[in-house]
Amino acid sequence: MGSDYYETLEINKNATDADIKKAYRRLALKFHPSSNRETGSSDKFCQLGEAYDVLSDPRKKATYDKFGEEGLKAGIPPEFGSSGAWSSKYVYHGNPDKTFREFFGGDNPFADFYTNDAPLQFGGLKPGVVKTQDSHIERDLHLSLDDLFHGCTKKIKISRRVMNEDGFTSGIKDKILTIDVKPGWKEGTRIIFPKEGDQGPNNIPADIVFMVRQKSHPLFVRQHNDLIYKAQITLEMALTGFSVDVETLDGRLISIPFNDIVHPAYNKVVTREGMPLSQDPSQRGNLVITFDIQFPEKLSAERKHLIKQALA
């Protein structure tokens, strides 16, 4: 009775190319003579090589599926070859190690499990270097002050290499990463997506790390959890009193009166009108109002005299 290549690989006749590769990968590693000393393992390893050599080749597989092992190895009339069938006599080269190395793409057939280039030891596998993770990939995440005040959701599309089901080929696929920005996050906050980098047979994918970068704001400068607002006032206002209207990040308009003389180094702290605290967004930093006092470029003699009288 001839060989049943499908039975050898423990698959059915509806198996896809990926199924065939996956089955050979699993069984060839299991029965490789370097790791399996049981009686019959070498013969099984050779049978696996021949079965994979046939079923992984579309023309050989088409011949085998239609004419069986006898038709494959005895040859079939050329007129039947037009459908893609194998019309020459098939003879397996008899070197299952060659099939094994070609499948895994290197001289070290266990390269998927070990990252060093040490030769294969047939007295048992030489311990190799454990797979190491690729260095993390860092990207900036630019957010407005409003984003960091209210919180928001950002969706970012990445393209990365992903391993196919067969375990050794790969392709580029897109993926959407979702970042839920929490109120109060600061410049430098790190968001880590573990193992979302490129996949490969011999590596652990890198972590992707997004670093918060705060965009500048036209009115406020952030200092930790406080917001700094610089009001431009005239010298007259600084000496005689005024009020400052500030539109907050949550859309309210607050008015702060100043009845005393304001000097350049003076600042006013308005509590709980700053940024939310990331640990507890119900708590807020402060709003700090500083001043840029605009002095007149020149004064007439009369005005100088009046100022002297007022300050005397």
TrEMBL record:
InterPro entries: DnaJ_C (IPR002939), DnaJ_domain (IPR001623), DnaJ_domain_CS (IPR018253), DnaJ_subfamily_B (IPR051339), HSP40/DnaJ_pept-bd (IPR008971), J_dom_sf (IPR036869). Transmembrane segments: none annotated. Residues 4-68 form the J domain. GO terms for molecular function: protein-folding chaperone binding; unfolded protein binding. Keywords: Cell projection, Chaperone, Cilium, Cilium biogenesis/degradation, Flagellum. It is found in: Cell projection, Cilium, Flagellum. One of its GO terms (cellular component) is sperm flagellum. GO terms for biological process: cell projection organization; microtubule-based process; protein folding. Pfam families: DnaJ, DnaJ_C. Functions as part of axonemal radial spoke complexes that play an important part in the motility of sperm and cilia. Homodimer. Component of the axonemal radial spoke complex 1 (RS1), at least composed of spoke head proteins RSPH1, RSPH3, RSPH9 and the cilia-specific component RSPH4A or sperm-specific component RSPH6A, spoke stalk proteins RSPH14, DNAJB13, DYDC1, ROPN1L and NME5, and the anchor protein IQUB. Interacts with SUN5. Interacts with IQUB. This is DnaJ homolog subfamily B member 13. The lineage of its organism: Eukaryota, Metazoa, Chordata, Craniata, Vertebrata.
